[in-house]
Amino acid sequence: MASSVPNIPSYKRQRVRKACVPCRERKRKCNGKSPCEMCISYGYVCHYMDKDRSSSSSFPVQKLDELPHAPESKPFAASNIHGNEVSSVDTQTVTNQSITDPVKSRYTIQHSAVAFPRCLGLELRSANPPRLHSFAWHCGIRPEENPSSHVLLSELITKEEYYRVSKVYFSVVHPIFDVVDPKQLAKNVEEYWAGNISNFEYGAVIAGVVALGSFFLGSIGHPREMDVVQYAKGILDDPTFSRIPTVEHVSAWVLRTIYLRATSRPHVAWLASCVTIHLSEAIGLHQDIDKGEFSMTSGVTLRRTAGFNEHTKRLFWCAWSINTILSYDYGRSSVALNRITCKPVEETEGSYTIHLVALAQTIPQGTVNTDLTQLLNALTAIHKSPNAHPFLLLTKCDICLSLYRRLRLLNHVLDKSVVLQIIDIGNAALSAAYALVKLGQSWWNVLSTSFQYVCVLLAIDTPESLSHVAAAMKTLDNITEVLGTHIALEAQKTAKLLLEDSMKKKRQEIQQLEQATHDRSTFENTNSLDIDWDALFDPSGTLGFM
C-alpha cells in the first residue's frame, strides 16, 4: 500500500539551490519548481527573487491543480502584459483557470466573484488570504431555509427487500448507466442499515437504485416504490443538502433523471438532466484534475484514486450523455459547459456506458442552426455505430429520427441511400423494442421509438419507406398489447389516425389524377363524333327535321 503513494526522494531537497519567497519567509522546504509543491499545497503565490523572475509565475496558484492541458511552459505573469501589448499566452487557458475547494467540494473559475477575493489576497501576499466563499453575495436580511424533516430509508424498505430489488437494477440499468460502484454501494448499504451511516445524501442514492429496480420489476415491483421516489426527491430538493454538493448528489440526480424519463413528462426529465449537469460542474466532475479531491459525503473527503477517478469519469459522462440525448430528442438546449477536459471512460467488460457516450458524441454540438452536412455526417456515423445492446439500438434510432426531423425542416430531399440508412436503423430498433418488452424491460423508448418510426416512414413518403409501414404498425400494435397502458393505447390510436390521413391524402391525389384522365377521355370522345355540319346548318334540312 505504501508503494502506491508517491514519495518525494530526499535527494531532491539537497539539489535545490534556490527557494521561493513564500517558502523562505515561512521557513518551509521548497523543491525549487515554479510553482513549488509547498505553494500549491497551501495556496501561496509562488514567486522568486527578481533575478529569478523569468522562471517564476506570479499567477495565483490555488490549492487544487490547474486545469489539464494548460501549457506549463507559458505561465501567466503580470510582466506579460504591457499597455495594449498582450503576449501570446492562451487566453482561453488563462481565463479558465480553476479552483476547487476540497472541503466543500466546490468548483469555480478564477475570474468568478466567489474566487476573486481569495485570488486578490494571494496576489497581495496576505498572511491569511480570504477563503473561497461567496462574500457579500446578498444582503443577509433573511436567514437561509431550515432543513426539512426526512425519515430514514430503512423505515420504508428492509435490507432484504433492497437486495431483491437491487438485483434487477444491476442486471438491467447498471450495464448502460454505470454511475454506481457496486462494491462501494454494497459496503455502504450494510453500514446504512446498521445505523453507521445516517447521512441522507447516500440514502438518496440507495433510493434511486430501489426505485429503478422496482420499476423494471413491473407489476411485482415494491409496494412502496412511490414513497421511495418521494423520499429521494425530498432529499435532492432540500436546499440545505445542495449547499455543499457531493459526488453522491450527482449519482442520485442521474438515477432520478432516468426514473423521470421512464415515468414522467419530457419537461420534468429535461429539467432534472440539466440540474445534474450543473451539479457536476459545481464539483468539477467535467475537469480532469488527477490530484483533485472530492467530497463523497458531508465532512468526508476522498482523494481521487485510480478506481475513484474512473468512477467519477463514468458518472460525468453518463450525466452528460443523458442531458445531450434527451435535449436533442426533446428539442431543447443542452447544458453547455465552458470547457470539458474529463478523460473518456475506459471500456469495461459487461458495461456499455462507453457506447452510450459515443452515441451522444455523434450529435452536432455548439450550433443553433446546424449545417446540412453535419446532419448527414452524424446520420452516417450513427448508422455505422455498433449494435452493442438492445437499448442502444433504440437510442441509435432516437438520434437518427431526431436528425431526420431537422433535415426535414431544411427541406432537404433525401437520397435513396440516406432513406435506406434510416430504415435499417429503424427496423433494428423495432426488433429490439419488442424483444425488450417481452422481457419485461419497459424502457421509455420501446414505445416512443416505435411510434416515432411509424411517423417518419409516413413523412418520408417514398416507395422504400411506405413498404415498411405495415411491419412497423404491426410491431407497435404488439407492443401496445403487451403494455396495455393509456399512453400506449393513445400512441397506437394516433399512429392509426396518421396512417388513415395518409391514405386519405393518397386517395385524393388519385382522384385528382383520375379526374384529369376523365376530362381527357371526354374531350377525345367529343372530337371523335362524325357530325355533318353542312346538313346541320342547312335551313331546308332543319325545317324538315322539325
From TrEMBL:
Q: Main localization of the protein?
A: nucleus
A Gene Ontology cellular-component term: nucleus
Q: Which UniProt keywords apply?
A: DNA-binding, Metal-binding, Nucleus, Transcription, Transcription regulation, Zinc
Location of this chain's protein in the cell: Nucleus
Do you know which Gene3D superfamilies this protein is assigned to? Zn(2)-C6 fungal-type DNA-binding domain
The record places domain Zn(2)-C6 fungal-type at 19-48
Q: What is this protein called?
A: Zn(2)-C6 fungal-type domain-containing protein
